[in-house]
Amino acid sequence: MSNSTVSRNPYAVTRNPMTDNGLRITNYVHIFFMDGVGMGTADANLNPFVTAHMPYLNGLFGEEWYVPNGSWVNGRLAPPHATLIPTDANLGLPGKPQSASGQAAILTGRNVPQLIGEHYGPKPNQAVRDVMAQGTLFSEVTAVGGHAALLSPYPQGYFDAIKSGKRLYSSVPLAATAAGLELMTADDLRHGRAVSPDFTGQGWREYLGYADIPVFTPYEAGQRLARLARDYHFSFFEHWPSDRAGHRGSLAEAAQHLELIDAALGGLIETWNQENDTGLLIITSDHGNIEEKGHRQHTRNPVPTILVGPGHAELAAKINDLTDIAQIVRRYLRLGDEEIGESLIANL
Ligand SMILES: [Zn+2]
Predict the structure, then answer these.
(1) Ligand 1 mean position, distance from CA 61 (Å)
(2) Which of 112, 114, 129, 239 has the fewest CB within 10 Å, making it most exposed?
(3) 3-346, superfamily in CATH?
């Protein structure tokens, strides 16, 4: 391929040497998404982060990393191997951010609440769907022949309920299926191709009637995500029980839940730093909730975005709100951006 051909193609991902089923995966991105996790205050009566035993994240970022602090450089916390960015989820709209429009903002890079005139959720309405129909990270990656996957699996009952119309897709599986991807199943979970939204898989045994689902520790689940992410240009994992722990349950239960997340992120980030040297890991959320247990609603707090991987500090400088995350992914994968295409060519 000559350079002149390359310069007309904005999709750098297609420039990688071909392998048996398409593309050599060099640059890749994984988004670890946790629903309803914000950054709050240091009030132990309100915020379960204060009492939760979180050895991994506390070790990485230091005490009270979950409270945005004006003394951080540029508002970011940046130990050597990761950057934490308190990220605006309000997107210029009043009211409480909601899941459908927030997740759609993450996946499209568009200000979905502004475009539809409100924060909307939990499931997308037609207005959210219309914005997502213009393209998401999933569809942009698959459109250029890249490999993408939603790594959280769904039980058979979910597929049946979608088919019968009893259940609507939330924004994340809507984006994946609209891009032509098949959602992962119990069989994918059994064979290690997916990771359970609850990390361990225990919920499949207890609540879903799957006695044969293997059970992992949260740390092992995080390790597995890091390894699975290498098989895709773009992969996404959705952990939704954190939002439920914000809406229901006690402060102590919320703290226990954060301990699961800490262990999973420990497995994910440690493995990422040891083994995934060309991948970018993005951890983020759609809105606050669990960090304020004085009520059972979403919050207007910033959400913690964590970047791990090559250039994390430089990329973090571009992130201020949820719409910036997709831009980072596009930049890292060199998707559909002429300017980035040009700068890449300059490096050839
Ligand atoms: Zn919620």
Answers:
(1) 26
(2) 114
(3) Alkaline Phosphatase, subunit A (3.40.720.10)
Residue reference for tokens 């299926």: 177
Alpha helices per DSSP H over 109-236 = 112-116, 126-132, 137-143, 156-164, 171-178, 186-190, 202-206, 218-229
> In the chain, where are the structural domains located?
3-346
Global confidence as pTM: 0.91
Question: From ligand 1's centre to the CA of 230, what distance in Å?
Answer: 30
Calpha distance 150→107 (Å, rounded): 12
The alpha carbon of 239 and the centre of ligand 1 are apart by a number of angstroms equal to 12
Q: How far is the CA of 31 from the centre of ligand 1 (A)?
A: 19
Any residues with CB less than 8 A from the CB of 27 and at least 6 apart, and which? 13, 233, 278, 279, 280, 332, 333, 334
Distance, CA 76 to ligand 1 centroid (Å)? 26
Residue ranges with CB less than 5 Å from ion ligand 1: 243
Number of alpha carbons in the 13 Å side-chain half-sphere of residue 214: 15
- Taking only the tens place, the pLDDT of each residue in 297-311 is 999 999 999 999 999
